[in-house]
Amino acid sequence: MPPFPPCPLQKVFLSQLNRDDAFYMAFAFNRAIDAWNDDEVPIGAIVVVGGEIVGSAHNRVSGTGDPTAHAEIIAITQAASAIGDWRLKDATLYVTKEPCPMCSGACIMSRVSRVVYAVSDQKMGCLGGATDLNALPASNHHFVVDRGVMEHLCRELIQAYFRLKRVSAPAPETS
Ligand SMILES: [Zn+2]
Q1: Residue 169 alpha carbon to ligand 1 centre in Å
Q2: What is the pTM assigned to this prediction?
Q3: Any long-range contacts for 100-103 (C-beta under 8 Å, 24+ apart)?
Q4: Per-residue confidence band for 169, with pLDDT thresholds at 50, 70 and 90
């Protein structure tokens, strides 16, 4: 079987002068490209506190053999370690695809203040796509959710990955 092709999309570097959501999502997108080149499902996430990136990760389920090694979980763990507090108060999580049930739960339990994702997931997304865990009425933590930042590029990346996987190997588990 031929080796899986390298990622056909280029990394994105935006001006430091305008640190908006697209600026930070570009870092998550670039981590997703790293995931592809490590033969992982191309999803990336970063955590930002006070304008600083305190967590940055890509999906590592295949390489680690760990079903919990989603980009969001790793980035949240790094962020808690970096700031020395499990409560990620004032933190924003940027992720290229809508968080799954596990990662949406981790957003609640880590008390992030905001989640920004690029691509909605109608099948497994739990921040509005398939269901909305952030809307649990009795939950003692809710956060702001914003959607669609860099959606086109992030969708193109994920779709290209699965299109090529289908022709080169049996379909893997999605994350
Ligand atoms: Zn997840």
Answers
A1: 23
A2: 0.94
A3: 100/70, 100/124, 100/125, 100/126, 100/175, 101/126, 101/133, 102/68, 102/70, 102/73, 103/70, 103/72, 103/73
A4: low
